[in-house]
Amino acid sequence: MTAPLRIGPYAIERLLGVGSFATVWLGHDRALDAHVAIKVLAENWSHDLRVRERFLDEARLLRRLEHERLIRVHAVGELPDGRPYAVLAWADGGSLRDRLAAGEIPTPAALRLLGEVCAGVAVLHRHGVVHRDLTPGNILFRSAGPGGPEQVLIADLGLAKALAAASGLTARAGTPGYMAPEQDDPGAVVDTRADVYGLGRLGIRLLAADPSGANPTGPDPSRRVPEVGLRDDVAEKSTRLTPMT
After folding, report:
1. How far apart are CA 120 and CA 68, in angstroms?
2. What is the pLDDT of residues 147-177, one digit of tens each?
3. Cβ proximity of 106 and 202 under 8 Å
4. Alpha carbon 58 to its chain's center
5. Residue 31's domain spans which residues?
6. Does any domain span residue 245?
7. Exactly one of 57, 98, 133, 185 is catalytic; which is it?
8. Residue 184 within a domain
9. Is 195 a catalytic residue?
10. Are 132 and 225 within one domain?
């Protein structure tokens, strides 16, 4: 893939990632001497009005919520070919997926991290939003400056919907191994319980799964972490969590 020289006023330095619906580039704002992440709708989806609207919905939603636990949106724009892009804060610490691929996270750190993720999801739920795709790739890290704590951020709200509209979806939405069973049923009501399920699966991945991520079907609840007393039967029950209150 050939990197563009510029996107809007931003000089492009390198590719950060490629997804099913979008490509993310590292850009540099020369006026402010700051890096940004620029998410561009994939070319093969540029003529699908539903996907285009969902792409813009994510930017609008993040801009409306504007919270320190969520990736922030600085601006939106449009390429000469008509594809929309969103200018996001750059998560310079990478993703949880990257860290899990590098090795196992110590239990105390994993528990703290899971607590931070839960707090970010709680922000969404307080605003009536369900994420529906809580995976390691959607948990990002951003340095907070010299001596400051690292920020844990919830990203990729492209699948998120206002709860009032979530039950009207007709297409499968979510990542196998992390999405709740009802997300595979077009007629089911999808609410905050889907995110509670996702948090449970994420917790199993952090505390009990194969740290290599080699299991393609998702977290393996048969592995145990003695430090937290995670037994096989408890791991199984974590897939049937009740809604957050």
Report:
1. 9
2. 678 999 999 887 776 554 544 544 556 777 7
3. no
4. 11
5. 6-89
6. no
7. 133
8. yes
9. no
10. yes
